[in-house]
Protein 1
Amino acid sequence: MGKTLLQKVWDAHTVRRLSTGQTQLFIGLHLVHEVTSPQAFDALRARGWRVRYPQRTFATVDHIAPTDGAARPFADPLAEAMMRALERNCRDFGIPLWDLGDDRQGIVHVIGPELGLTQPGMTIACGDSHTSTHGAFGAVAFGIGTTQVRDVLASQSLALEPLKVRRIEVTGQLAPGVYAKDVILALIERLGVKGGVEYAYEYAGDTVARMSMDERMTMCNMSIEGGARVGYVNPDETTFEYLRGRPFAPAAADFDRAVTWWRAQASDPDAPYDDVVQIDAGALEPVVTWGTNPGQSVGVSGRMPMPAEVDAGERAAVEEALAFMGFEPGAAIAGTKIDVAFIGSCTNSRLSDLREAARIVRGRRLAPHVKGLVVPGSRAVRIAAEREGLDVAFLDAGFEWRGAGCSMCLGMNPDKLVGRQVSASSSNRNFRGRQGSPTGRTLLMSPAMVAAAAIAGEVVDVRRWAEAGRDDLSSTASSGPSGTGRLDEGGRA
Amino acid sequence: MSSSRITRVEGRGLPLAGHDIDTDRILPARFLKTVTFEGLEQHVFEDDRAGRPEEAPAHPFDDPRFGGARILIVNRNFGCGSSREHAPQALRRWGIEAVVGESFSEIFFGNALAIGLVCVKAAPSDVERLQDLVVHDPGARLAVVLDAMVVRAEGLDGEVIIDLPASARDAFVSGTWDATGMLLDDYAAVERTAASLPYVGGRWGSA
Ligand code: SF4
């Protein structure tokens, strides 16, 4: 019988079985950032340990990075202290650090793939739950806590329990205006935010096979929001072509040898799965969250739930979420007013995401009451986007164009919601307080949906805009008295 | 840090009802801006505690009846969301030594294990029974007993069966929950595994 990719990678990286019954697993790539590492480095110092594989360890700064200019010292002394600690730790332990002045800086899950560090068949760890992103390349990538960061620094390995594998077969053609983000949000809605606990998710099917690496990363990124610590896609030609020529990818003749090995890591056709789930992507519409966890979502033409109509076990949670959000049970999600539009985060801040969003905003204006923020995932994305003029499209529409970092994905840097503001966000978590205001509210959606909401000032169905040809869009754009070209209400049924 | 054996946790209970309590709620992100774990206990559930309407009952972490409790009793999918170890650290530093719940997020569970915070699962109806018991009698003494894999409590009808993966149980009972030492025990084996992987050191030619 064949093996899954997970099984092959697990076997190849098994150091030994521990007396606890866990597996000691070798970690092939360790990515480090400023938030979850300082205590781990201090523990190493306290015990006189060194970093065993500094050459397999790379650091960057993302969570605390101010995105509106990065003059040092940072205005926030706590952020400055964290930055200094990271600089000192990387210097003392011989780890390369790509900091704010470096063109390789960015969100850790954006730069790993971009630099070609992330490769098929690897084990990858990072002190961040969205490490699952790297699984898009057919790597087994874990989010870990600080004590485990210490374990990896000191021993290049982790003590882990085996995982089951759920194959998720996504089939059908995505409609224009429907994206990988919608697929993963719909999947989490269906399987629940803890449906993936103890599983690795293997994404397969013709829809995934057609997806770009950026789209696959969006899917794998949010595996953790469905409870799965690991999500992956079997490596294929799309993966190999993405990696060719990247700074840390094997070069010249090594590349072809690497492809042979990478290809062999993919799941065998007769591999056994612990569970199989099918999802028809062709039937999906854009998805928007209405609640306080990523599983609480609905298609854009849908309505908020009625607590009386949901399972008794879910009722209290639904009531609580609606009360926090201040939404009327049964109200349509479309038409929900927003205050802030955030395009960014490790889920959706790559060049293709920005292109899709720019396509929507080009020639239009932000709704007057909306603050719009576009935050590229990395310096490299920012530079590439500027080369294409995407910055101009956003700036002309009234968005702010920022430096790379986590920004408003979480409240650890100056970009925060204020009070009860409602944010349309391309990020991954709508937990209470996540975007920096304890009472702030987050609606998760695709970058194109965020762009459309920013223009309309409320949640709208981006498919109407996506279906229209470019000419249509620009004629809308040049209409209107002030030439602002706001999407008029007439566009909505 | 050599870890100590943990075979049982005894103390009073702290009931915290609700599903899917994420780590952003346990410890809001702004308190991650620190280079040590010290003092985090001051901010545990800070926004939930501060954001309560005047007329609402005290948050369990502010309710004097539960002061000094060691055993937190939670519902489903506790600790989901961000991987921040700051969350279990804050609970542990608050004085929580064990958490009994319907289920836990995996990363939270792993982080808790690594710092010696015992997280055990129990059936939803049993969790509810324990929460009820503690709400009605905050002084009741509870014991999470890893040898027998039960929770015992004063005033509880019978025992509550708990569930914990065998490896985690062994780690607590044998005092090996602090994994680093164990992982370094046979470092030559780590190097052998590394040498067998073509991408480590770029050995594609000989792969
Ligand atoms: S962008 Fe958001 S989810 Fe991603 S690493 Fe940064 S804070 Fe975490």
Protein 2
Amino acid sequence: MLKFVLKRILMLIPVILGIVLIVFTIMYLTPGDPARLILGEKAPQEQVDVLRDQMGLNDPFVVQFARYVGNMLRGDFGRSYATNIPVAETIAERFPKTAELALAGMFLSVLIGMPIGILSAVKRYSILDNISMIFAMLATAIPAFWLGMMLIIAFSLNLKWFPSSGFDTFRQMVLPTITLAAVNAAVIIRMTRSSMLEVVRQDYIRTAWAKGADQKRVVLGHALKNSIIPVITVIGINFGSLLGGAVVTETVFGIPGLGTAMVNAIRMKDNPLVLGSVVYIAIVFSLVNLAVDIIYALIDPRLRE
Amino acid sequence: MKRLLSLALVVMLVLSLFTACGGDSAGTNPGGEAAPAAPSGEKDSVIVAMNADPTGFDPQVTLDATAMMVMYNIYDTLVESDGACSSDIRPGLAESWDISDDNMVYTFHLKSGVKFHNGEPFTAADAKFTIERAMVEPATASYCASIDKVDAPDDSTLVVTLKVPFANFLMNLGGSFFGVVNEKAVTESGEDYGRNPVGTGPYKFVSWSSGDNVVLAYNEDYHGEAPAIKNVTYRVLPDTSTALVALQNGEIDALPNSAPIDAPTIEADPNLNLYSAPGATIAYIGFNTQAAPFDNEKVRQAVKYAINKEEVFMGAQDGDGVLANSPLNEVMDGYNPDDPVMNPYDLEKAKALMTEAGYADGFSCSIKLAAGQNREKVAQVVQAQLKEIGITASIETLEKGTYFEQMAVGNYEVYVGGLNWPDADDMLTYLFASDGPFNWGSVYSNPTIDELLVKARQENDAAKRSEMYQQIVKITDEDANKIPLYFPNQYFAAKNSLKGVRVIDNCYYPVASWSWE
């Protein structure tokens, strides 16, 4: 097990380097001059050229790339072009909010999604099942920004139960978490339901019924354990991407997370911040995948090789 | 059993969502931010919304509007000119000044006893450092083009010598980019100065939580009148709809640059006030005057007569603002509402000109614009109007970076542009000078205009200056190299108990002049 984990962590290094090369190349090739975007529309071209020189943007691609990787390997992710704040600091400052939002959203979606998914599978075609399928369909179709705005208008403006933005106090967290959880809950419901349905039709479940086992034990004990692997996959992937920042939710609710920081950095062609964020997300995502794989092994003895 | 337990957990969680964790209702005192500033509703604090995270508070480096909004409260300038928007010059850090007869040497007599937020005394050396810094930093160098040298013969005298007389020199000195910095603080902080600003203004910098908020607190050693408001918090709210709800809920006190579309909602709310002023951002259509068919003056004029500005104004802006017959708005030198004609729409004349130019059958072209500034709607209305004279225009909406790259090399035919300047010199130079930054791809060049611009810049008599600008407007109306459309209004929404608010520029909001009723 330990060897497995170590091997996966070592594999991170070529993955990160590959990602850095790809993103760096994309940023280099896409149109848009960071110096121009910093100084704005009104700056005369001569000043833009002076800034380009200062920023080392006129150096050939290989020189710029080597410089970046060299610094990165020494732990220096550079300073943001726009704010001149060290990239590592900005990421460290913005990440906690995103992590909190992701955790809260994930927790709520699992809390809602799994029980409903299980019940739907067990009571297939019942009213509960139909309702939850409709809910799942709606939640997947409704755009997050619309849902967020509607929640704000209904619960913040009209009912005045919750504040409309921010993510510090518990009450501020409610609406954004619900917005985020809605879509994920839908996915989890459907995944849980379909996975459970497959398992519930297996022979060993029939045997358990036949042996007279209590329903709860069959469902939660046998069926759930066997059907949970695809669900964990889905949860893992969603969680990983949420950690990259749910940009739309963050923007609507004014949450200073990593998602908005990254999108702004991309718009401003703030290369150091974009690259730093991408490296960071790649690492986090890989670790989440690793965690998911470890959980597989823990749940399914067949995978413990 | 397990199922009952999980059900119970869900119910408990749902219930706990609705219990107050502090007892305040969202109506009177919501939010409870982790920020150290006092919450809204207290009479010496104010919470202002920002639509983006600022990129730093170094006046000679940062030019984004949200940063400037904050910097006008942290820093003072040598003279006050409403953020370089007003020619009514008032003393700032300079109590008085003498101008030499040839208008080239300005001698400023500086206020004494002024201290920076870090306790250091303000001297002419800091003013000299500030201006010399502005002359070399890429963001501000173009504002210092007329400055030759700066001297500080003693601690309270500053002498600035110009290369040529420059009528707007004093007005410019009131801009954020000339915010006076402390030489010691800048040298010591080095690259991190942007996060540790030190000024002489009524408010000192307390903290900046990236993407979240900026907090300022009253400067007890302020050299001027003590402001009524002691604590300022700027909250980052990128979504205008959320910001509006926050204002309506009382979570914030002021919303600068509120969206025009929210104006009716704000006006209908008995607790809110909507302030508006004509803006100084001209929306216009530009042409590549070196590429056929727009190198033909008749074709450009045909477009001029084909565009019904009223329609464009209503369609793109909901009539919110004023029509423009030139890039000059009512406060600028040279403004004349009667000449040229405000809306020269004349479809027959347009068609006749097209035939004269040899394009009776029309042609196709592309209209370029940068995404995200309401310019799409302008392009759509213009596209429909051009169809009437046989021009089939396709709209190319480009991402900002791509847009700049293409414009800079002259890769465009028609474009929808916007430019914001509070004075005629900058506005007309940018748009019409041969080396004007908005002469994208250097396609336009008129030596008469260049000459007039230089003469006007050095002319101290406002009447003579106005005449020259009017001449320029006439020439450009004739050759139609750019078609001015309208000036959108600027809005500011706030709780109606907040007094002292003036809307001048999109970022000049000195909190020191505000107070609670």
Protein 3
Amino acid sequence: MNNRLKVLRAEHDWSQADLAARLGVSRQTVNALETGRYDPSLPLAFKIAAVFGQPIEAIFSA
Amino acid sequence: MSWQRARSFIARGGGFILLILALVFARIGAQNDGAMWVAAVLGMLSAMWIGGAWMASIDEAAQEAHKWSWYWGGSGGMAVGGVLLILAMTPTGRGWTVPVLLEPASPAGYAATGAMGMLLLMVTGYLLAWGLWWLRHR
């Protein structure tokens, strides 16, 4: 699965640690998400969408 | 104290209260077999409680790493132990000498040694798998 997490995070000028704190996960998890090595659960995907104020499909693609 | 806070306190502190009780019973158990049974059960309950509270406190990727590692690493370690177990029951194993965990050697001591050996193999497999999971997902 591909995602635009890194781009969106850069647009908000957040570090991985900033985003991790907003999502309630570790920085390692944010890194794994950004590199596409870990696919989030549906609840986490919804949380990511809420944090960036965008629909899930605008962030994740198959 | 509100119910919310009381629940949080029980979730976080319950395991440690069980652990303290287990240590108290273990001390009594030096002279009393019944108390040692209670200590052992309370000790394992506290380990499960503390482990459960800790598992709930980590994020989903970390949880996934532990679940994957216990399944594949633990199963892999158990498979290695299974080979040894099967061989021990065949003529091949008759010449083996096994160090005993509890002296003097007794059936319970040999059983404890076998259980500990299997546990060590499973934990070794788990640790290797856990490292591999993070190497693949970092």
Protein 4
Amino acid sequence: MEEYIILMRLDLITKDKQPSPEQLESYMKMYHDWVGDIAAQNKFVGGKGLSTEGKVIKSDKLVTDGPFAEIKESIAGFITIRAASLDDAAAIAGKCPILQGEGNSVEVRKIVSK
Amino acid sequence: MSSPEIIPHLFRTEYRKIVSVLSKRFGFDQLEMAEDIASETFLTATQSWGIEGMPQNPAGWLYTVAMNKAKNFLQREALLKRKIAPEISRTAAKEEEPCVDLSPQNIQDSQLQMMFAICHPSISPEAQVGLSLRILCGFGIEEIASAFLSSKETINKRLFRAKERLREEKVQIEMPGAEAIGERLKVVLATIYLLFNEGYYSARQPHPLRKELCYEAMRLCHFLLENEQTNKPEVNALMALMCFHASRFDARANEQGELILYADQDTGLWNSELVSRGGYFLRCAATGNTLTRYHLEAGIAYWNTQGNDSIRKWEQILHYYNLLLQIDYSPIAALNRTFALAKVKGKPAAIIEAEKLGLEDYHFYYALLGELYSGVDDEQAKENYRKALAKSPAGFERRTIEKKLTELEGS
């Protein structure tokens, strides 16, 4: 088993794409069930939510208020899991409920440092 | 109560008080001496009360005798020191009158500090429970051996080694500092929970329900609640959890001591007072910032006291298991979570998740699959029940699975 990080991206900027409180509650439920599925397989390692505020610094030292304002996808949060392979990890990530939202995405990367 | 009966009862409650106070006064490394004095005191009591009858104030009598024995011990020690090392005793200040503080406050404090001293991370969890039963609950070695399905020799060795280890670590009878208390409390709570679980669903066949062990665990937990420094949310959560489980004791086992499944229990025998009390502690636990496994298990246990199936009950149970598995994975929690998932999302969805669990070594796993496939694919259900039987130890679990298989085969 290796560790993988699943980065979840969604549009945090476009005002009319933000979920209503009921939608949010429903998404949270789906999200918790998805994480619960992973935890039941003893593959859950950790996870953090991220604030919607932040900063972006670019190579020309320009600092803007984040999240990443030029791309409509900002990192919403991430979890780390154990999986037998990248394919296994991708299969798990593919079930993330944010993918039900158009334009959202998840990225899976193997963790290589200790 | 006649004299022979009251002594075991008093032994339980007063033994730990005397041992704790004496150990605090003399130092934890003198624990065995403190235990000897306590035991001798009870021996004297048995002899004396048998002849002269019970004194008016039995506890007071015990304390007086224990104190006198302790004084004698101290004086012998001082005498020995003077003979062996006269220089030291001459330069020492005038010998103080050896005394032991038996005020209620000191008795209370000493016991609490003794609990922390015993539930120390340097000794194994079994040793912690064993020492707790011996010193804090006044259990005899035979009783402890019986509780652990072990022999007197093993238990004696275990306790002896544990005390040695604690001496090596120079463990003191004192409250841990504010920074350490959180961590140490975790160990204490784990010990109490281990003790409760041993009574609730003993590892050994036929899984006897040992209510006394559960009650001792609850008593120790209550003790923590009575002290300001240890009256923390997670302690209240653990207390709530134990109350909820204990509420079903009368329904949980029949007269022969055989376990009765939850679904088959007579809910009229469920103790609603314990459920209320659990609810009270659960509310007390709902403070502070940390969600501990005890909070989650208490939440699950609460819903299990509500006999009626409702979608909300199972949604909540599923939610709590989702969180519990993230904090602290265990195969049993994973199986129970999957059962709750079936109640919320239906059996087919749960079957998909069940087959990812990777628990092919557990007979419970096949029993769960049998349950999930029943009504969905009865052939698969029977197949899984048969696999479960092949792996089950004899006894209650086996009989339960056999019953389910027979029902399916008959239909």
